[in-house]
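User: I'm preparing a small set of examples for a lab meeting where we compare how different chains pack in three dimensions. I only have the primary sequence for this one, and I'd like the structure in token form so I can line it up with the others. Please keep the answer compact; I'll paste it straight into my notes.
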Amino acid sequence: MTSQRTRKLALSIQDELGIKYTEALRMAKIQIEERLALAVTAPSASRATELTERRFPHEGTFGSGLPLGLDETYGNFVTWNFKDNDHLLCVAPTGNGKTVFLQNLAYSALRSVPSAELSIVSLKSPDAFRFADPHARGVARSIEDAVALLRALKDMALGRQELVSNHGVSSFHELPRSVQQTYGLELRRHILIIDELSSLTEVLPVPETPEPFAPSSDDQKIMGENAWRSEMNEILSFLVRVGHSVAISVAGATQRIHSTMALELADYVQKSARLIMGRVPSNEAHLLSLNQADRRPFLAPMNVGHGAFIPSSGESEQVMMWPPLDDEQIEWLESSLQPLSDRQRLDLDGHSDWWIDRMSYDV
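Assistant: Understood. Below is the structure token output for the 363-residue chain.
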């Protein structure tokens, strides 16, 4: 199936050269293949340098955005722009590259230092983000750590709200540069990455226990975890609502948007930029705003490593995602970034008093 952008390029070639449309279409496809090959393989040192510099923001680009992959038509970068899209939702069936995408997103966030800081929740793939452990402010691999991490992020958001209020501005981005420099790490945009969002937040059913019997130990465990899940839903809903003003962005991945997803996350589904990979069930298309005429082609199945980026405003784009991280990229992190100190990390016991204490400093 010929994409709309390929047809546009073909029409442009036809007008420029005065040739038949079929020949112009053939030339357009060749041009696109060459551009993508050049962008992905980066055969020359200068091209590789250019791609690296364009993929990763330079120091001091506070709150700009992170590159997600390459435009499938022209090989240009497709960027998650924080200014226009506070949050990001990735929807893809199992085996279509969600975890690889989130790994690259984490890597890009770390490469963009000091523009961003990072925390990660990954219960189903606990080893997938080990490379980020020394540099992330928090990594949760159990439901206990996940709820503690979200509590700490809620404290962070409340502290940032207080800082904004104390300086008489409406959002985090409007704080004076002197305040940003004083707080350093704590005033970077914070990106929370959540793998398998729906399984983390979905409250599980518990069988009714007839009186006078007590619930089984397994049922009691589920009931306790459900209480945590409900709390995490509430905190995530809060972070989504205040994310723009406090510079906290949630990037979540899930297999599907189904009816059992918590109601508290409805705003998250609607307010986020969407990245669709694989095939979206037709009964979920309206939840992802895919029913619009220009987005219907994204309902067709996509190959692994390919997706559709749908921002909250602007033109949707077909994206070729970054390949899995290689050893050279991991080695760059190890050699170029200093590990965070214990003081710089979020307290996974749910106590972030050190952040709140600093709110009383005269800055």
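A couple of notes for your slides: The CA atoms of residues 11 and 209 lie 68 Å apart. Residues 34-50, 57-63, 351-363 have pLDDT under 50 and may be disordered.

User: Perfect, thanks.
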